[in-house]
Amino acid sequence: MTALVPRIRRERQTMADPAGRQDEPAGRSEPGRRGDDGWFAWGLMALGLALAVNTLLGPLATDTIGYPFSETLRNQTVGLEAVSLLLVAPLCVAAGILSRRGHPAGQVLALGPTAYTAYMFVQYIIGPGYVRYPRVLPFHVGLFILSVVVGLKAWTIVDEDALPAMSPSLARRRSKIVVALGAFVVLRYLPALVGAWTNEPIAREFTREPAMFWSILALDLGLVVPGAVAVAVNLYRSRSPSKGLYALVGWFALVPPSVTAMSVVMLANDDPSGSIGQVLVFGGATLAFWTFAFCLFRPLLSDRTRPR
Questions:
Q1: FRET label pair with 251: which of 9, 17, 239, 245, CA 20 to 30 Å apart?
Q2: Count of CB atoms situated within 10 Å of the CB of 68
Q3: Is residue 199 within 8 Å of 212, Cβ to Cβ?
């Protein structure tokens, strides 16, 4: 009878904590992590693989899809898909691997590339102005849906209370930077806003594919700019980071490099719409956005935020 006592105690301890761990003090959760489902990590890696496949099927590689684009928009697509292949797809896979291993940074890093992919594939679907149902439509719609589903999942499992803290002064500075990000987008469309009063034609490179121009304008002015304002106001008032901040900065760290790559390809191919000024402006903006993103995301990958 007495020999059963230690066994009963061990069984009670196992029932209380199956992993044999002691309870951790309240409030000490892993930064950015609330819980994870296995499909989330695999979904991120699948998204990265699908982006790579889409690039290989596009004008950068095999030109299997054959978009009905003008030469200018074709050059822009080549630059865009180069960034998708070399930067966005690996980031999706890396975020998926981190999430699979239980690293709390995986879910936060996923916010940027999923937002980027959803943003881009709205343009892939609407921009060409198809008059026939393209064979690639199910693939592109599926990629858009996958990016939205995985992005929303990342949004729900990121724990804002466990994100790296920032001082009130740092929060105020970063809120001003976010306002500057939104202002950068607005300034890019200043000719369009002014032209709306004078009934000016749209930019020359979009005259053959006006749907592409209007889809980008609607996304930038209708979603990105209001999102930047909301994030800046919340950051200034609460003095604490939010997942909206990480999603916005993650998006800005990916989209301007793609615009820079578009400008480089146009300039290299002697496109009439290309110019060295565009390359310098967007190249400088890319370096500035990457610097801000590095300062924001670096604490997530430090030793202090790795799983215990």
A1: 239
A2: 14
A3: no
Residue 116 structure tokens: 């980027």
On whether the CB atoms of residues 100 and 235 are closer than 8 A, the answer is no
- The half-sphere exposure of 238 on its side-chain side, counting CA atoms within 13 A, is 14
Phi, psi of 235 (to 5 degrees): -70, -40
Q: DSSP secondary-structure letter at 220?
A: I
Q: Over the stretch 4-43, which tens digit does the pLDDT of each residue have?
A: 444 444 444 444 444 444 444 443 344 444 444 589 999 9
112 touches 95 (CB < 8 A): no
Are 125 and 54 spatial neighbours (Cβ–Cβ below 8 Å)? no
Q: 228: number of CA atoms within 13 Å, CB side?
A: 22
Residue 113 contacts residue 43 (beta carbons within 8 Å): no
Q: Is the pTM of this model over 0.70?
A: yes
Name the burial class of residue 128, with classes exposed (0-12), middle (13-18) and buried (19+) by CB atoms within 10 angstroms of its CB: buried
